[in-house]
Amino acid sequence: MEEVKEFENIKEFLLQVIEDYKKNENFDFHPYDLAEHLLKLRDSNYDEYEYVCKKIPSELFAEILCEMPTYVQEEIPTVISSKKIANITSKMDSDDASELIYNISQKNEEKAQNILSKLDDEDQLVIQKLNSYEENQAGSYMQSELFSVYLYEKIDVALKRLKKLKEEDVLDNVFHAYVVGKKGRYIGSIGLEELIVFDRGLTFNDIPKDKIKTYSCSHFSDISEVAELVTNYNLSAIAIIDKDKLVGRITHDDIHDVIQEQNTKQLYSLAGVNDDAEQEESMYRIGKNRAFWLGINLITAILASIVIGLFDATIQSLVALAVLMPIVASMGGNAGTQTLTVTVRQMALGDISYTDAKRTIKKEVVISLFNGFLFAFVIGVIAFIWFKLPLLGVVIALSMVINLFSAGFFGAVIPILLEKFEIDPAIGSTVILTTVTDIVGFFSFLGLATIILL
Amino acid sequence: MEEVKEFENIKEFLLQVIEDYKKNENFDFHPYDLAEHLLKLRDSNYDEYEYVCKKIPSELFAEILCEMPTYVQEEIPTVISSKKIANITSKMDSDDASELIYNISQKNEEKAQNILSKLDDEDQLVIQKLNSYEENQAGSYMQSELFSVYLYEKIDVALKRLKKLKEEDVLDNVFHAYVVGKKGRYIGSIGLEELIVFDRGLTFNDIPKDKIKTYSCSHFSDISEVAELVTNYNLSAIAIIDKDKLVGRITHDDIHDVIQEQNTKQLYSLAGVNDDAEQEESMYRIGKNRAFWLGINLITAILASIVIGLFDATIQSLVALAVLMPIVASMGGNAGTQTLTVTVRQMALGDISYTDAKRTIKKEVVISLFNGFLFAFVIGVIAFIWFKLPLLGVVIALSMVINLFSAGFFGAVIPILLEKFEIDPAIGSTVILTTVTDIVGFFSFLGLATIILL
């Protein structure tokens, strides 16, 4: 992105790019980079951003807008006219177009309908169809643009059609020819790398069956299952079917986005953050959502405090306990988080499943106990030296073993159980776990102190 | 994977699959699924696993072994003979072959050399070349198998060569023809979807320049930069060059693996877990590595304890402080983790950078203060009701605001600063942050109590 430097500012640079595009002169910018520049301009000078947006030709804008985040798509009706948005939408692939209309409708349903009504009937139908799927269904991710060929068609005839589609620029990322039979029945796909070497006089029916791959997913499939299939089998694209009829395809770059979203969701969930809310521009909404998880954390912290309150007399008679007690809870919380994170991740990657539960729990308990004994010794010696009380060292050592054992056990059990009950193990695991390690930590330490020291 | 059920066990099933494969009869299994079955067998009955491994033909094993985790590749010399491993290696793509040899060498360097020596000279050279790259360099991920064409060659001649390569099964996932000039100089790539519609009598030089994409990365590029380029531009594969010479390519499925590894690393680092160590089979090594981070956590927990120790007289005179003090620290830790996780993730996704630092910090501070005031009110009222001490409510409320403010501030600043000093912000951020929130939490609460309540 060095190109900007020679221009006074991003605005001038983008206007020059637009001129080049119109003249089709030296135009070798990727829409992703232009989207990045435009976003920078939007952040630094909104008026200039609006000005530039109005100048971008629809065809180029269609490519740029696909690369823009949700919140920019949502607000685009405040920047350019409905007519232009309709024009832009008509130049997009169906999956991008339906996403744009969906995003606009989230802010302003009426405006979205208005834009939709300006499209031709066929585009309207496709977008309405794609937006009728649930958010997690394969159908809402697919594009209807694909290279389909008829089983008894000559390869030559099909390739001439492809040529025309490419010339009209309506088809991108063509990895396969999708072979269909009568009434659009999906038969299978053949990679272009296979197809390209066949005699063009043959029909698709003449191609050996082992070259035709039958992978497909239902339009109602959960997108995470589709993502798993595509990544496990290293596919470039997958056919989406409605019963036995071919209705669309999902390409690897869309699957990549799905996977990155899943990763963000997992990471955020473990930290008590909602990934959808974080994408909002409104700090109030982000804050409100984080407050929800902080509220739950407050309840669990109060539970831990109640446990401490049970032993107020013990603490009164030996304040050293108050000084040391956060150590046991903190070590338990950390060891538990280690176990929990590894378990959640390995379940998500498919490395472990409910059937391996016993083995996973055993492994985690052994590791935690190993570290429990190690740190029991260390902290026992430290407490003894610090407070000159040998028995205090014994108490904290014992409670360290107990708490790290329970950290390992519950760190593995909680996500496995949530998964079994079909609850996302990333959501809520952390808060349940720290409740356990706090309560076990304080209870074991102060309880043992009451028995042994008083 | 239902197919197994009709067989008595996995072993019988796999042996049948092998028979079918040899007879080339109804063979439509994906190597990924066979690898999964084989892993299951390995876990349940190692002897049967070894027995089956010895029966798998080399060509099929080459495909299966690519799908197996590192630890299985490492131990494979204990399961099958060096000669067979050499045979399997020779059937693999160069990137998979070099990875296998590398993994074996990690356990047994001599064995790896022995296997390598059994390969033909060309394979040996390629594998040695790929394994000479650093782990993070593009070169160590590339495969040398690709469809390269000469600029002045006729398309027809090139396609005949492709046909032969496909028949010999040495080339997979061909998305592009890579056009080279004299002395292997890389000119650009043309997608098969473009190429397939051109007249086969033309040469590659006759193809319009805008169809030839010049994207490429140096073999010394950091793999994370390559991954960024491929995903931002939605590429299927990228050319890897040594100066101006084409030396290999990296395909989208390999990039997918890189990204998943990065995601795992990020998630694990935030939880104080090392991703490489977790892949070990030895529980001792996993435990040792986790102990490292627990040890650092112990030090920070002791620091927090020392802070508490400064106020032992205050606690002695009001034990309610010991009961309530974990609440402030816990809320600070949680709010800070929310901020930290969002900041680390958005930096990794490229959504924010050092130049946005001010804006990010401001946003996070505002959100934290919003929640700070909210929960200050809630906990203030609870503490007042619980202990019937209005001033105790004031103390905890004030310290909640202070601690949530510092949680938001440091949760954003720490990863941004680490990134600036080119330290991975995911590693170590959490432990620095919780040290801050613990110390600020205990110090502000107990300090304010000493001033206001005594």
From TrEMBL, chains A, B:
Q: Which family does it belong to?
A: Belongs to the SLC41A transporter family.
Q: Magnesium transporter MgtE intracellular domain: from which residue to which, for each copy? A: 29-138
* Membrane topology qualifier: Multi-pass membrane protein
Where is this gene product found? Membrane
Q: Which GO terms describe its molecular function?
A: magnesium ion transmembrane transporter activity
Q: What is this protein called?
A: Magnesium transporter
Which keywords has UniProt assigned to this entry?
Magnesium, Membrane, Transmembrane, Transmembrane helix, Transport
Taxonomic lineage per UniProt? Bacteria, Pseudomonadati, Campylobacterota, Epsilonproteobacteria, Campylobacterales
The protein's superkingdom reads: Bacteria
Name the GO cellular-component terms.
membrane
> Which parts pass through the membrane?
291-311, 317-344, 365-387, 393-418, 430-453
What is the species listed in this Swiss-Prot or TrEMBL entry?
Halarcobacter mediterraneus
